């Protein structure tokens, strides 16, 4: 029972088979000039209902985020994001490195979500054209957030309107985009370019791929430098078809949404079983496949004794011990049943 992350899981069998099939197909053109890579772009155009969309596969979310942001800002630019964002906390200054020095500027908000009112106030400050200040260039938000919450289309549109009013681009870290879409109940287009998103890091690794993401430009003009930046960064794969085959299978027949639906449903089962227990408290609403939850010592010790794995997490209440649990596309029903049985027994 491993709930540490959706990164601890393997890959979906259909995706593993797709990579194997691409290998068995024999030689193919290199560096992305292959049928799989072209098909992925066509699939993404269909998914997002955007015929002029431009997409590029990469292997990691850090590469996707950093290269996408670098295409939107000069080296003296400012990137506005939540202080808990992955690009701030977990990417070892990669966005700053790949943008040759752009500054990440924290804009806080509750439950991991950048607050639009605060953003408007920050962007109204008189820094434009002032040589002593980084120049506002990009706003970056995360779907789903590092607190497991999601932005709805109207929230994205409000942030996009503020950013565009000041001449900034809007980037979305979509590492768990599919999970956010399941909760939002809207089309990918409504949560992306129709809401004002300019570029997106389209996640697949956390949702069943082996190692595959895509950078999706809804504004093709922003993609002019991407191929050079990707090559210089060492993220242009010679055997690109083996990367693209993962995304091809991921997008085929709605597999990506099916996987996310399973993960979200597993998270809801944990919520339904845990929250009635005495002393259990959710730190944030559960809107994707992550739970941030305070557990009494007896429940935590019983789960640990049974070998359950999950990460500790900071609580906003003194003395309270909280944890993060993440479900995945292949979380087994039997594991959920056993987990909840152990917790309920310990609570009694």
Low-confidence stretches: none
Q: Briefly note the structural class of the backbone.
A: alpha/beta
Mean of all residue-level pLDDT scores:
97
Strand order of the largest sheet: 1-7-6-5-4-2-3
- Report the portion of residues in β strands: 15-25%
Helix content: 25-40%
Number of helices: 13
Largest sheet: 7 strands, mixed
The count of strands amounts to 11
End-to-end gap? 21 Å
Helix-strand blueprint:
Elements (H helix, E strand, L loop, with lengths): L12 H12 L10 H13 L6 E5 L2 H10 L6 E5 L4 H4 L4 H5 L4 E4 L9 H8 L11 E8 L10 H13 L3 E6 L2 H8 L14 E5 L9 E5 L8 H7 L7 H12 L3 H20 L6 E2 L7 E5 L2 H9 L5 E3 L8 E5 L6 H15 L1
Parallel strand pairs: 2-3, 2-4, 4-5, 5-6
Antiparallel strand pairs: 1-7, 6-7, 8-9, 9-11, 10-11
Helix pairs in contact: 1-10, 2-10, 6-7, 8-11, 11-13, 12-13
How would you describe the overall organization of this protein?
By secondary structure, the protein is α/β, with parallel strands linked by helices. The protein has 2 domains: 13-255, 3-Layer(aba) Sandwich (Aspartate Aminotransferase, domain 2); 256-347, Aspartate Aminotransferase, domain 1 (Alpha-Beta Complex), CATH 3.90.1150. It contains 13 helices and 11 strands. Strands 1-7-6-5-4-2-3 form a 7-stranded mixed β-sheet, with helices on both faces. Strands 8-9-11-10 form a 4-stranded antiparallel β-sheet, with helices on one face. Helix 7 (153-165) links the parallel strand 4 (135-142) and strand 5. Helix 1 (13-24) packs across helix 10 (240-251) and helix 8 (177-184) packs across helix 11 (255-274). The longest helix has 20 residues, at 255-274. The chain is globular, with a radius of gyration of 21 Å. The mean pLDDT is 97.
């Amino acid at each position: 029972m491993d709930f540490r992350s959706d990164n601890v899981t393997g890959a979906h069998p259909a995706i593993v088979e797709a990579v194997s099939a691409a290998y068995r197909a024999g030689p193919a053109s290199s560096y992305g000039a292959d049928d799989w890579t072209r098909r992925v772009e066509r699939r993404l155009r269909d998914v997002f209902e955007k015929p002029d969309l431009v997409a590029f596969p990469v292997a990691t979310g850090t590469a996707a985020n950093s290269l996408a942001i670098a295409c939107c800002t000069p080296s003296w630019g400012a990137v506005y994001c939540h202080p808990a964002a992955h690009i701030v906390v977990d990417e070892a200054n990669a966005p700053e490195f790949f943008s040759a020095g752009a500054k990440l500027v924290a804009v806080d908000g509750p439950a991991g979500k950048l607050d639009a009112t605060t953003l408007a106030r920050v962007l109204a400050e008189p820094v434009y054209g002032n040589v002593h200040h980084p120049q506002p260039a990009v706003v970056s938000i995360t779907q789903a957030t590092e607190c497991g919450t999601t932005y709805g289309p109207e929230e994205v549109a409000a942030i996009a309107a503020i950013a565009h009013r000041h001449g900034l681009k809007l980037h979305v870290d979509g590492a768990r985009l599919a999970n956010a879409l399941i909760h939002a109940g809207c089309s990918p287009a409504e949560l992306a370019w129709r809401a004002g998103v300019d570029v997106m890091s389209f996640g697949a690794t956390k949702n069943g791929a082996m190692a595959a993401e895509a950078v999706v430009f809804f504004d093709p003009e922003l993609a002019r430098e991407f191929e050079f930046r990707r090559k210089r960064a060492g993220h242009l794969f010679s055997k690109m078809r083996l990367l693209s085959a993962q995304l091809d299978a991921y997008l085929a027949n709605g597999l990506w949404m099916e996987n996310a639906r399973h993960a979200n449903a597993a998270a809801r089962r944990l919520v339904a079983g845990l929250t009635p227990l005495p002393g259990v408290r959710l730190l944030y609403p559960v809107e994707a496949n992550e739970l941030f939850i305070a557990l009494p010592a007896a429940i935590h010790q019983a789960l640990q004794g049974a070998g359950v794995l999950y990460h500790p997490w900071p609580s906003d209440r003194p003395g309270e011990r909280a944890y993060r649990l993440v479900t995945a596309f292949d979380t087994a029903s039997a594991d959920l049943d056993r987990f909840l049985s152990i917790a309920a027994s310990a609570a009694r």
